[in-house]
Amino acid sequence: MKFWNMPWGPPAFNVVDKALVESYVPPAGLPRVTYGLVEWATWTQTFATAVDSGTGPAVSSGGGIQAFQFAAEGKIAYADHLIETLKAKNLYNNFLPGLFEAMKTPAGYVAVPYQVDVRVWYYNKALLEKAGAEVPTDWPSYISAGKKLAKIGAYGFGLGGGSGNNVGSQVLVSLMIANGGGLFDEYQKPNCVTERNIEAMEFVLECYAAGMVAPGCAVYTLADVYNQWTAGKFAMGGSNMGLKTYTSGAASKDLVVMPPFKGPHGTEGTFMSPNNIMMYKETPTQAGSEAFLLWYLEHMHVLWDKGVFPDLPVQKSVEDSPAVKLDTELYDEASLWLPVGKTYGAPGGSALFAGIGAVDGAPPLLDFAQTMLEGKTSAKGALQTLQSAITSAL
User: Fold this and answer.
1) What is d(CA 301, CA 324) in angstroms, rounded to the nearest whole number?
2) pLDDT tier for residue 313 given thresholds of 50, 70 and 90
3) Strands 120-124 and 2-5
């Protein structure tokens, strides 16, 4: 039976995760499990091709909305029976509240919670001190700090939009959410061209005009972005969690999680994704899928114990573990940014739904990010193009 996982952290994550999975000893009569790694750069194509052809995994993680998409295609084995088992074993209440509800559809639970991924902002403490800049508390002070950083050759809006880099587009959505906006209305319909979204993207263009955006960053991969942070060229910017684990050297040691900074209406927020693990109908045995996934949920604390999982745990026992409490970076991300996080469903709501697949790692939003980071557009024009592309994709 195949289990596919993503590179959720640095290379050590998949090394530890593979060893964990390979240590699984199934109950009598049920299959063992093989481990597969799916890279983010090609994850949508890899899963779509494999699942449609019947050569995919029995269990996998993946994009936050992936289970909803495959459920709509009749490919998902619903997790209702597994969840009843979790309740019977008194494991259900160990999960943080509201996460199972996010996986529920009228037909059943499409997946079980795995971890929570939040977009956070960082700054390089040494570079801000060198530039004589203060840690931003709102958009005007962010621009002010960025201009001072530009004078010492550092960029204050560190971001990338290249191949496989979904983080850049999610950070732009984070700014919309922080300003009370987002991509969908309360009816789960695309609603990109709003005053709050225009205002947020005008802030991005203002950063560009102030020399805070690195030339060529529109094609920066995640590796390129990490290299810019490591080299001390990026001094402030939005990022995926655990930035220190992807960087090295003196600059990495100077990275600090920035508290949320307020938009012009006094609001704050960010993008968050409650990611999950799903089961597929294409499996040697559904009993085998459920037995393995139950075991994995009981043992995945090892990933945080060994410090290789930079995302937030979904189980209370793991969140309260010494390993997590001693990780100051993870603690700051959880305490500062998780409380203001919203999903792609914002501002209409935080419920996940299949339509989000039109933006999650998809061309409309990736193209939008590149356009914005090139700085050769108007905020309203870019949002209108995004609106049309999402509508067409849906």
Assistant:
1) 10
2) very high
3) unpaired
